[in-house]
Each structure stands twice: as C-alpha cells, then as structure tokens.
Amino acid sequence: MNPYIAVIHRDLLLALRRKNEAMTSVIFFVVVAALFPLGISPEMSTLRLIAPGVLWIGALLASMLSLGRLFAGDHQDGTLEQMVLSSASLPGLVGAKILAHWLMSGLPLVLMAPILALQFDLNAQDIEVLTTSLLLGTPLLSLIGAVGAALTLGVRGADVLLSLLVLPLYVPALVFGAGAVQAQAAGLGASAHLSLLAAMLLVAVVFGPWACAAALRIALE
Amino acid sequence: MIWSSFSEFISMGGYGLYVWGSFGVTALLMIMEVLQAARQHKSMRDSLRIQAASQEAEEDWP
Amino acid sequence: MKLHPNLFRFAAPQAFYGLAGRLWPVLAFLATLLGAWGLWLGLFVAPTDFQQGQAYRIIFVHVPASWMSMIIYLAMAFWALLGLTFNTRLSGMMNLALAPTGAMFAFLSLWSGALWGKPMWGTWWVWDARLTSELILFFLYLGFMGLTAAIDDPRRADKAGGLLALVGAINVPIIYFSVRWWNTLHQGSSVSVTKGSSMEPTMLWAMLLMAIAFWLYAIVMALYRIRTIILGREQHTHWAKLELHPEGFA
Lengths: 221, 62, 250
What we know:
The structure holds three protein chains of three kinds. Chain A has nine helices and no strands. By secondary structure, chain A is mostly helical. Chain A has one domain. Chain A starts with a helix and ends with a helix. Chain B is an all-alpha fold. The longest helix of chain B has 45 residues, at 16-60. Chain B starts with 5 loop residues before the first helix and ends with a helix. Chain C is mainly alpha-helical. Chain C has a single domain (23-231), classed as Four Helix Bundle (Hemerythrin (Met), subunit A). The radius of gyration of chain C is 21 Å and the shape is globular. The interface between B and C is large, with 31 and 41 residues.
C-alpha cells in the first residue's frame, strides 16, 4: 500500500477507536458557542451580529485544542521516528497525518457549524458562506497549527505554549473567515474573502507540511 | 530653547502625564534591561568560576 | 575579496566573544551621544505641534520603538535563516540575545501608543491596523522567548526558535495586511502618527536621531547578552576557562 494512504488509514482507524477524543472537539465547539449568548445577550439582533466571530473563534479554539493529539501518540510509541527515518517523503507523510487529523477533528466542526448558526438566527445564505469559510479555514488552521505542534513536541507546558505560538498566526484566517460571513450579511458578497482564504489554504498546503517536517526533524534529532 | 520656565517644561501644555509617562517608562525599562543583563553576566561568570574551582578540587582529591 | 576569509572567523563563538567585547562600549557611547542629541532636539528645540500641542512629543520614543521592534524581528529572521541553512551556532545565540530587547521595544510601542492615544483620541486603546499588528508582533516575541526557554537542549532550542522566527516573519506581512483589511472594512479609526501634522525638520531630525540611538542600543544589548550566552555554552572549552581564570590554573 502507498505509505501515505497507509498513514491516513492508520490514523483514522486509531481515531475512530478513541471516538471520545474526536467528540471533545465538537462538544467544545458547541459549549463555547453557547457561552457567548450567556455572557453577552440573548437579543437576536446582537447574536446575528456577533455570530460570524463567535462561531469562527469557537471552531478556531476547538481546532487548536485538538493539535496536541496530532503527533503525541506517534511520538510516544516511536512511530514518528520511523517516519522521519523512512525513505518516504516526510512532508508527504506529515501531510497525510494532517489530513487524517482534519477529517477527524476539523470536518466535524464544519458539519456542526450550520446547526449552531441556527441558534444565532443566521439566514440560509449566511450559513452557506459560514460553512464554506470553515471548510476552507479549518484545514488552513490545521496546517498552521501542525507546525506549532511539531515545534513544541515533548516540551514542558506544550499546550499553553502552543496556543501562544499559533494564535497570532491564526489571525489572517480568522479575519477573512469571519469577515466573509459579515460581508455576506451586509450584502457585499463574500467572494473576495473566500478567494483570499482559498489562496492562503493553497499556500499552506504547499509549504505547511514542508515546514512541519523541518520542525519534526529539529524536534527529533 | 522653547520653554520659558521649568514648570512649563514639566507640564508639557497639560499633557505632562502622557509625555513623561512615555519617556519615563522608556528610560525605566532600558535601565532595568541594562542592569539585568549586567547581573546575568556577573552571575554566569561567578557560577562558572565556582564550577571550575570545584572541579579542580575534585582533581586534587579524587 | 581578501576581506571575506578574515570576517568568517568571527562565526566562531570565541572570536565573536572578543569582538563583541571590544565593540559594545564604543557603540554604547555613540548611542548615548545620539540619544542625548535627539532628546535635546525633541524636547527643547522642536516647536509645538499645531494640532496636537505638546503631546506629539511622544512620537520621539513611540516611533523609534515601533521601528526597532520590527527591525529586530527582521534581524532575528535573518539570523534564523543563516543558522538553519549553514548550521552556525552563533546565529541561534544571536536571536536569544536580540529577542528580549525586541519584545521590550514592542511593549514600549504599545505603551507609548496608548499614552499618546488617550489625550488625542480619548481612549487608551484603538483597534487600528498598526497598533493591533504591533500587539501581535509582541505576542510573536513572547512566543519565541517562551519556546526557547521551554526547550532544554540548547541546539534544539536554537533551531526551533529559528524556524519559529522565520515562520513568524513570513507571516507578519500577511497578518498586517489582513488586520488593515479588517480595520478599513469596519471603518475603524485610521490613526497615523504623522498624518495631519506636517513634520518640521527639527521634528524629523529628532525622530531620526532617536531611532538610530535606539538601534545602537539594541545592538549593544545584543552584543552584551551574547557574551553571557557564549560563556555559558562554551564553558568547557579551554579558552573560556582561561577567560574566567586569567591568572591561570593552580
């Protein structure tokens, strides 16, 4: 079997066996989205206003919290070292891992978002843009976050440190992702935002696994 | 010299708090940074000297 | 050119230790001189601003601090690239020496920006593009310092920090652009230090002098700090032992 497919297959299998880990991302997303109305106001007009930001930030935080799981398991049982030493392209293997990770941790958020959007009284077109922006954005966040996860591999206090490292880098995705929904809601059309998001995703797909592989080599040598 | 009195200089047209708050904190942080760097250098030299001395002592009495 | 082989020997920590030791006092003297001159021009010669009164004088520390916070980060990215490409030891140490000063300048930029904003626009903080980007730059510095402090192995810390600095530097323009987009779309206040007030020559001069003084200060701090770092890393070498015990061994 192609080594990259094998990695995806293995990671998905492992994740499905530990279903509750995958579920925690989604549950976190749901809970956080519920906290904002509780903390701000139940007014529908307010909620419609803050919904793009709230939902995007909720997904962003949920995605960030799941990053710790990306390399930790393989690091502990030595699989990661095998990957670094193997003849297969490390960026390719890393890309495969990130894809599997996104399928289990990011995609569920994308699927959950429309349901949560209903709680914020967003209309159908806004929800469509929201879902699209998250579909483009969550892989982007995974790719950026993976570099941070690799840099902090096995480091003391990695979780909090990872947040500090990665959140500034998340800002463009957040701005254009939430901005897309806001633009749609304001009647201005989201195509510019979504195009930029797509462009950033493309760049991240090309360079992210490569930077992540470099970070893994640094962490493991 | 554009100030006609010292108190005029200090008050900065009523903006004294903001102007001196900026310049003051700048000076303060720079001084603190310099002192801290000096202290770190000294303690590095001291601890290395102590380490080297204890190693010598070990060599004399293995 | 015949000069090149001579310069490359300073890539060795021992040689650089000596060079840094001879260089920093000279640069410190220069920094003090230019800083004093800049302060003289800025506080005693430059006239009152037509629109902002005396409060505008904050720019004499705010603008140099902002510029330095960005230049130092660029320098860190440069050394990071050098270090990751050529595997030089000194590059990582230089970044460790530069980061604290860069973080300090980023903080000063935010602090002086807030103190300038309160009398000018009525609030201690505005979410304009430049201040927000400066805040994010401050977080990038803290992230670098946190990561390098958390990794015990010095070589891994150097390389990981270098990669982080590079990734951060590449992202800074993207972050700035996105923040500007965000700001203009929401019609946030677009504040500019120099917009709305024509800069008199003395003002420009004072700002430039302060900027150069801050730059020299940053170099002095980096050179001073790197000597401490070099001593710590090289403590087992003969030259370092000699350096600490000039009188020789018993």
